[in-house]
Design brief:
This protein has 6 helices and 9 strands; from the N terminus they run E-E-E-H-H-H-E-E-H-E-E-E-E-H-H. It is α+β, with helices and mostly antiparallel strands. The chain has 2 domains: 54 residues, no CATH class; 143 residues, Protein Transport Mog1p, Chain A (3-Layer(aba) Sandwich).
Amino acid sequence: MSTPEFILDESVNEPGGDVWFAVPAGFTSIPIGALLNPPDSPGADELRTAIDPILDAAPTDVARQLFLTQIAFSQQLLAALVEVGTTHCSIGLHRDDVSDSKSDESIATHLFSLFTLSWRDIATAAPAVTAARAVAGAEGHTDIEYLELPCGPASFSELVRAPNAESGLPQEPILQIFAHLPHPDGKRLVVLTLGTTAVSRRAEYRSLLHQIAENVSFENPLLEAEAINRAADKATAGPDRSG
């Protein structure tokens, strides 16, 4: 799995932001707000706009009903994520070239993953303490690691679990890799989670989450970039000779 270039999330310029992050190419953001809008709410038009073309393209009424059933199931999953503080969710699709040991031909496959960003309210503490507490005694977590990132101290961990039989999900092991990033105010914690059924590719996915975490900022990075560009433009223009 090759490491893709990063692109900025479209919410980077939204007012009132508390965290900025770069999402790699290959991830498609899920419009949580639009999908969870009640049918009679003003925002329901966003959902209808998104799914109407798909419904129109469905070959039969049965296919349309199956699609609507999947949308309803997705809404339940997203609602559960929102309840635990998730504010961003993306689906990852990356090409994986695997060599078949039985032949010289390369087999192109695709790897799927789910990336989420969630907020947790915590007891006030220094960021380093919060990062340590986030994984201390976490049941089943392995490969615990502490790093100092540009945004501050962080802890990483991994967990392999199987879905409950009642969930209706395939009973395949799911690898979840976590990055815990304390907010500088000492009262909140950002949790980045990258999940996939491609457990054998844990090293690549851990490296990918590391790269995402390294690009997290609790201050708008574009403001500093704009200030640098303005200073450079002013220096290039030379002294003001007016007057």
